[in-house]
Design goal:
With 321 residues, this protein is mainly beta. Helix content is 12%, strand content 40%.
């Protein structure tokens, strides 16, 4: 049964580069709408770990609520609050139960089929036909053992043809502790040039083998951003120059004299774990021949620059030795 519960908990949770800048809404990604199911208050369009456990043969013995509506939102009125808690029965067998959300509808049998590698492509899901580049959301993660408890955000795009489901793209992010709402971005890695027909998303307050009660994850404002095409835009790729790169003083410059709107486009910079470390609105056209970009105060490593140009997303690796 340990493997079964692990699969349940886990469930509740490139090749292509050209992207546009618009955000694509996720059904109730703001967690403003809540409904009653199985005697629980749950977010519309999402299934909670609590619901999955209650639908199991032993669900009548489960009375813990690990997913709830919370008023400390990033924007709007509510956010989703996911707490790792001890349950009188289940915790004696499996340890504390983490809070989790899964987009779409999933029963106990379907969530227990999820592999331990956090593949959610066969569970839940809602219609979605955009080749998105990233999943972005705001979160807080607190608790004395929040980091080792391993809170996760997971996303997958799939397409089902003739009864066979194919994963088009996927991504996951282990969340770092954050006392205030923090913007996170999960880049999608594409393995197919096909257009998806469904999206699968999961959040969980802890997926470690050994968890502790008290870890709490708040999630709000979940959106997909960008549109990835199956081919590169050579002219767009050639238009941008980043120098110096590597940069020993963490200062870079962007130039695009042939396409001024490229170097001056809005950008997002993420670290190697996918966490957003810098954002910027569009810059004046006068900076197309030398727009400054600084990462001072950040540790040495590799960072990913994503420029949201009018012709698509343009990415560059930035290296601080």
């Amino acid at each position: 049964m340990r493997a079964t519960l692990l699969a349940l908990v886990t469930a509740s949770l490139g090749l292509f580069t050209s992207t546009t800048t618009s955000a694509q809404a996720i059904s109730n990604g703001t967690f403003e709408t809540w409904v009653s199911r199985r005697g629980l208050e749950v977010p519309f369009s999402w299934t909670t770990v609590d619901e999955g456990i209650e639908s199991s043969p032993a669900g009548g013995f489960y009375n813990t609520v690990t997913a709830s509506k919370d008023g400390s939102s990033h924007a709007g009125t509510y956010a989703a609050k996911l707490e790792t808690k001890s349950d009188p029965l289940f915790s004696t067998l499996f340890g504390p139960v983490p809070g989790g959300l899964l987009l779409g509808t999933a029963d106990f049998n379907s969530v227990t089929d999820v592999l331990a590698d956090r593949d959610i492509s066969g569970v839940g899901g809602l219609p979605f036909t955009t080749r998105a580049a990233n999943m972005q959301f705001y979160y807080k993660l607190t608790g004395n053992n929040a980091l080792p408890d391993s809170a996760y955000a997971i996303v997958a795009l799939t397409r089902t043809t003739g009864g066979t489901t194919q994963t088009i793209a996927s991504g996951s992010l282990r969340l770092l502790p954050a006392a205030a709402y923090t913007l996170a971005s999960v880049p999608l890695q594409y393995t197919s040039a096909l257009t998806p027909d469904s999206i699968h998303i999961a959040f969980a307050s802890g997926l470690a083998d050994t968890r502790t009660a008290g870890t709490t994850l708040f999630v709000d404002d979940v959106v997909m951003t960008g549109i990835v095409s199956a081919t590169k835009n050579p002219a767009l790729e050639a238009a941008l120059t980043v120098y110096p790169n590597p940069s020993s003083n963490s200062e870079f410059r962007l130039t695009s004299p042939t396409k001024p709107t490229v170097a001056t486009a809005p950008y997002t910079i993420t670290d190697a774990t996918g966490h957003v470390v810098r954002t910027s609105a569009a810059a004046p056209a006068s900076l197309a021949n030398g727009r400054p970009l600084e990462l001072r105060g950040l540790p040495a490593g590799v960072y990913m620059l994503q420029l949201n140009t009018s012709e698509g997303l343009l990415t560059r690796k930035l290296l601080i030795p």
